[in-house]
Design brief:
single chain; Rossmann fold; 6-stranded mixed beta sheet; 7 helices; 28% strand; globular
């Protein structure tokens, strides 16, 4: 299990996270929702180890861990592009797990497989980087805005790949496109007022003001 507890984080005088708890089991997909600026990305960075919390307890399979990136148990998709721009598409595809390079993926990239990544659109590059991260031999995968910029067809293909990968890995994902996230997640949690709440029914998202009240 990946488990982080009692997370606190401040930027100057602003408290971003306070006593947060989040866990994820192998074979589970956890969808993390929350409004802009509530600290979702910061929490994923803290888990990965690229951002230092004011305080936290972080455990991987019952072992205290401070920086997950120093091991091979956690892979992380940041919001920014991270694969070098000079690499060609085919090179990146060759480094992906063949089991997730479906016919749809192969067909989609066929026309520009010899292009460098800096010649791709933002959505095409994002899609490719998602495939690469999900191919890593990590037990847990953190996905920050995986559906950002990508086309509806790519979202559907990526959802299928996340579901397949999530059968053996633990996946935590956050995205402003809440509908694709909710469709693919086994469990939904919401970051609200610096803390995290388990969501059992969609109506609770109205209660916590993530969705507007349809009666208003």
């Amino acid at each position: 299990m990946l488990e982080i507890d009692s997370v606190s984080l401040c930027f100057g005088m602003k408290e971003v996270l306070s006593g947060c708890y989040l866990c994820c089991n192998e074979g589970e997909i956890v969808g993390l929702l929350g409004r802009n600026g509530c600290g979702k990305s910061s929490l994923l960075k803290i888990i990965f180890g690229s951002l230092k919390a004011g305080f936290m307890h972080f455990r991987l399979n019952d072992k205290i861990t401070k920086r997950a990136f120093q091991g091979k148990d956690v892979a992380y998709l940041p919001q920014f592009n991270f694969i070098p721009s000079f690499l060609r598409v085919q090179k990146v595809l060759n480094d992906c797990n063949p089991e997730i390079i479906t016919e749809e993926v192969t067909s989609f990239f066929e026309a520009f497989k010899n292009n460098r990544l800096n010649n791709l659109s933002g959505g095409e590059r994002r899609f490719l980087e998602c495939l690469w991260i999900l191919s890593r031999p990590a037990t847990y995968v953190l996905l920050d805005e995986p559906f950002s910029e990508i086309a509806p067809f790519q979202i559907e293909v990526l959802q299928d790949i996340i579901r397949k990968t999530g059968k053996t890995k633990g996946i935590i994902l956050t995205d402003h496109f809440y509908r694709p996230l909710m469709e693919v997640s086994d469990r939904i949690v919401l970051m609200h007022n610096n803390a995290i709440y388990n969501i059992k029914e969609e109506s609770e998202l109205v209660l916590y003001h993530y969705f507007p009240d349809p009666g208003i």
